Amino acid sequence: MIKCPKCGSDNLLNAIFCRGCGEKLDLSELKPDSFLEKKLTKSQKIMKIVNQVLSVVIALLLITLIVGIFFPVAHLTGNEPSADATKQFEEAQTFGVQAVRRGRRPPRNKDDDKPSSKSFTFSSQDATALLNKSLHLPITGGDNKLTSENLSVSFAGDGCATLILTSKLMGKVPMHNTVVVKPTVSNGVLAMNVQKTKIGFVPVPAQLNQKITQKFVNLSGGSTALDKIKSKLTEVKISDGSLTITVSKK
């Protein structure tokens, strides 16, 4: 190392300009002491160690964050729903809808004597399969950098549902967005009531919840079947491993 005679900065032996002041290093002005390594003071040594420790800590935090975001999350997959679940799902969509005969006066609906509402129960696995089927997942093709592959839903005894959306970045790297919600129905309006959100295993600050939940909102908006059920929904009950919905006649 050579020491700049003007500002005192240390420079490499082959340096032409000083990295401290930018002035050209004139070898004729350099003294023998300029080629000696500058000894650090005690405070400078401490600061050097502190900077090294901080650099290591920041690097570890960044690595942990990246690993946490892309870390695999256990979730259910959208296999075929059971025959009973499929039947219930279809009935929930058509419940209370009166058939109309073309060219004739509609007859008295026999369903008028039946209950005005009906409940349907689905397991976590069946609900996951039905969701993926109604949302046409996985979504392939297009120029999207992040494609939706699978939507998992599981129900807990505290009345919450955990939704995990699995997507692929550039069609290769899997990512998992998790939203925990506590659904309620008031005056025919379904509210999801977000409890927390995560990307991988990394919790998302409350201020950014909207960006994560919007992905689920956009995805569910593409299902006519879900829209039909939501328009008649009057009650949602969640127990450990199952969901019970109640729909009523319009």
TrEMBL record:
Transmembrane regions listed in the UniProt entry: 49-71
Species the sequence originates in: Oligosphaera ethanolica
Residue ranges of the region described as Disordered: 101-121
Keywords, sorted A to Z: Membrane, Transmembrane, Transmembrane helix
Protein name according to UniProt: Zinc-ribbon domain-containing protein
Lineage: superkingdom: Bacteria
Keyword field contains Membrane: yes
Source species taxonomy: Bacteria, Pseudomonadati, Lentisphaerota, Oligosphaeria, Oligosphaerales
